[in-house]
Amino acid sequence: MKYIKTSVLLLLLSLITGLSFGQTSPKSLRLFIIGNSFSQNASAYLSNFAKEKGTELIVGRAELAGHSLEQHWGYVEAAEANPEDPKGKPYKGNKSLRMLLSAGTWDVVTLQQASYLSADKESYNPYAQKLYDYIKKIQPNARIIIHQTWAYRSDALKFGRVAPNQLAKNQTEMWEKSRAAYHALAKQLNAKIMPVGDAFYAVASDKVFGFKKDPAFDYENPVYPNLPNQENSINMGYYWKDKKIVFDPNHANEAGRYLGGLIWYAILFNESPSKIEYVPKNVPADFAVYLKTVAEKTIKNLNTSK
């Protein structure tokens, strides 16, 4: 019930204040994603949203687990030096980035940094700029949008790097410094940003809805199939696999993927996320309403801060 009460208030607030979404949105979109598992998480429900709205969405992907901007650019260099070099064709189907980008005309191409490096501003360049220039040579009319990834859950054992040999002390520092780095990159490239990281932190830091570590669970001696209380988590957290407990405070769970997708859809299609009706089956309906209000407020904050 707490979701419903707060969500109704937030929805009323959003209706009163209004948001700056355009009058028209594209009826079809060809989207190409350069990233890793975090971009896969955030875009997981895009096709569901597009189908609901009767929009044609075609998605191309150059995604490799844990990969950074530097690693993606390294593959480009290998392929450009020798198109037959297997090192330059690491993507699905043994394809190079040039081969994938050249498959038709792409309306939007997204870029992101690996989450572990996202709070280290110096890790972005020169690789982001080189990738941007490379994309523009192949797809000169494509809009390039920056995907701002999120900080790890508050109970993570370690957080992303903020400088060589220095890690963020906590979730807040990782979010603050990754946000600053992403916005600096967006300004450098004159590119729009998808503020998924801001939306995640808004949920995580909410006094009512923010995740709180379960103090009653025995983390040192877990007993199958018991799990800690992880209410309101938007990260995977603890789960059992083959009767072994796994802890993943980094990747998004179903609710986190839903929240990330709402931000992506709002930016890509210039539509209010509050209009999305689809809800994944593992996300409680009332919590989904709350996540839509967070997405809407995050987009509003992005628009008003320009």
UniProtKB/TrEMBL annotation:
Residue runs in coiled coils: none
InterPro entries with a match to the protein in the record: DUF4886, SGNH_hydro_sf
Pfam families: DUF4886
Gene3D superfamilies with a match to the protein in the record: SGNH hydrolase (3.40.50.1110)
Molecular function via GO: hydrolase activity, acting on ester bonds
Residue ranges of every copy of the DUF4886 domain listed in the record: 31-157
Full protein name: DUF4886 domain-containing protein
Source organism per UniProt: Pedobacter hiemivivus
